[in-house]
Design brief:
401 residues, 5-stranded antiparallel β-sheet
Length: 401
Amino acid sequence: MARLAQTAGLTDVQQEILSTVRDFVDKEIIPVATELEHRDEYPQDIVDGLKELGLFGLMIPEEYGGLGESLLTYALCVEEIARGWMSVSGIINTHFIVAYMLKQHGTQEQKDHFLPRMAAGDIRGAFSMSEPALGSDVSAISSKAVRDGEEYVLNGQKMWLTNGGTSSLVAVLVRSDEGHPEGTAPHKSMTTFLVEKEPGFGEVRPGLTIPGKIDKMGYKGVDTTELIMDGLRIPANRVLGGVTGRGFYQMMDGVEVGRVNVAARGCGVAQRAFELGVRYAQQRHTFGKQIAQHQAIQFKLAEMATKVEAAHAMMVNAARKKDSGERNDLEAGMAKYLASEYCKEVVEDAFRIHGGYGFSKEYEIERLYREAPMLLIGEGTAEIQKMIIGRRLLEEYRFQG
């Protein structure tokens, strides 16, 4: 075995794409990631390189200028990118989710208008579901849209937008009571709006403000922001799919594939942590020999490698299930849950192998140690994944007594 996390059954095209991405990561991302991360600097040169590779259109159909690749191909590319620097995979992920939602749920006019420019990377996507007091309770959304002629007026505050500043298109989930009488279930009175804006911070269009970046423990470089709507007017033809009340289902569909993406990120970060740990273990000497020759370290490396392999296998299974057209919320939930938890554990073990040097900003593992916790939260916490998994298992194993 040349290295961990190999994927069987890939086509020649998939292997060529992954080889190209891995080469790009090794040459263009890993050498500069830690420096850019410590400066919290947006990786513009890296993003431009990904644009040239066509990765912003990886899953967008060829008729719209994309590569028309599968979720599996995309997830494996994300795994490679996250291995280099997780923040870069976040820049790609939110764009991918919006493009996926447009492809699956958009009107023909919306697809024709947005997808070709998204495939080229000229439009960058972000999506907005969470709010300051929301947490995991999506049904508690308070941002609201009210119809006014051929427009809707949006008011409210959204939170935790990845690419909030650098994006030019945001899919925003709000409550819309039009056509939904009082007493309608909350998830049936939500609508996704496609909000175009100028990149940047401050008032980016009348009624829409993107405050400055949120200062984070990790996951730096990529901008994470709030979004404030105060009398924001959006044309009715920018309701995703053209019909109100479907936003919750559209967002959940996007989040479902996003969970495969987060699982892939966890796999990539864990792979890099293992690489750093196994390399350092062969460089550091104690008691007259490499620390890799001590049984305690070998046990730790064995556990780390097994977790990397298991997480990768579950991520690949979840992606292939979705690509087959089958429901994959169970597999995606399991993959996201396992990969994020194992990522945290593998990173911590690599940190322990580094000893005191792991606490130094001169060593890459320090950055990974701060990045891994984000995966425990993004696209649903472990507790949310367990709820999804448990409910689906009860559906599949319903006792007929």
